[in-house]
Amino acid sequence: SPAKMQARPAAAALSPPPVSTTIPNKSKRTAQDYIFGKVIGDGCYSTVFLAKDIHTGKEYAIKVCEKRHIIKEKKGEYIKREKEALNMLSNVPKGFVRLYCTFQDAERLYFVLSYAKNGELLPYINKVGSFELDVAKYYAAELVLALEKMHSKGIIHRDLKPENILLDENMHLQIADFGTVKILDPEVIRTIPEANIEDNSQSTERERRRNMSFVGTAQYVSPELLRHREDTRASDLWALGCIIYQMISGLPPFRGPNEFLTFQKILKLDYEFPEGFPADAKDLVEKLLILDHTKRLGVEDKGETYESIRKHPFFNGIDWDTVLEQSPPTIN
Ligand code: ADE
After folding, report:
1. Best mutation site among 115, 167, 172 for ligand 1 pocket (most ligand atoms within 8 Å of CB)
2. Closest Cα partner for 38 from 26, 22, 49, 23?
3. 263 CA distance to ligand 1 middle (Å)
4. DSSP 134-159
5. What is the DSSP letter of 314?
6. Model's pTM, two decimal places?
7. pLDDT tens digit string along 64-115?
């Protein structure tokens, strides 16, 4: 309209338009907006690069997936769920790797994630052998808080392990790798279990590994995921039990010479506590590592917090309201 055409030059005369390179525009980003550095993570269908935003100099972890590979391996559904879960958690300020944006080109998909500067929790456990009790207690508490937030949104991780727990620049924990999540329908608390897991004892190692990518990593997988592929928040509580055990003793509770024998141990609850394992920690782990997932500590809790876990004597001294604002105790 003539009115609009008159308004424009007047407004432009007040201040010249900004140079596009100084103000990041809102349009879709591309790989050219970043300088790609070293590989910082590797999955079965993705590679994570450290990358720098050329406009701001800020560092990100960019997860790159090759489309051809995703189509061939039929992982499209997993990528969609990963993005959905990350978006659902994007307004949660702490405890999770954050998704800033996504884009694609002809060959690849890109997820721009927060860069957790201190990497995985696993090498820290392996380096010191086992955590001091206050350190184990602190990180267990951060993990409980993260699980509360995730589970209250209906997100089950299904592959929690010290490789998927990252540490930011302040040594606070960030859960990563949502490629295995199950997002529960808000109406249906427990979804209909999928088809029974294949009898893996007959299949090749390669096939077994491919099937396992559905259910998570051998040492942390829950008995109900192994037996029935049942989707329940309690599977993440099982993994919590395994991780607490590992932070204190140095090794995960269920260890076999191969995946099949590890599964056998899980299904028989065949594990032991090393001598000197603290009594409160032992009691908590025993209440999480229960074969019947409906009997695990926390599953009966109502509301958005795991009150029965928070109240367990292992966590005596933890101030649940301020844990995330505290500086984590030093690992040594
Ligand atoms: N490895 C995989 N994802 C990562 C992230 N967001 N930060 C650091 N290392 C990672």
Report:
1. 115
2. 49
3. 28
4. HHHHHHHHHHHHHHHHHHHTTEE-S-
5. G
6. 0.85
7. 999 999 999 999 999 999 999 999 999 999 999 999 999 999 999 999 999 9
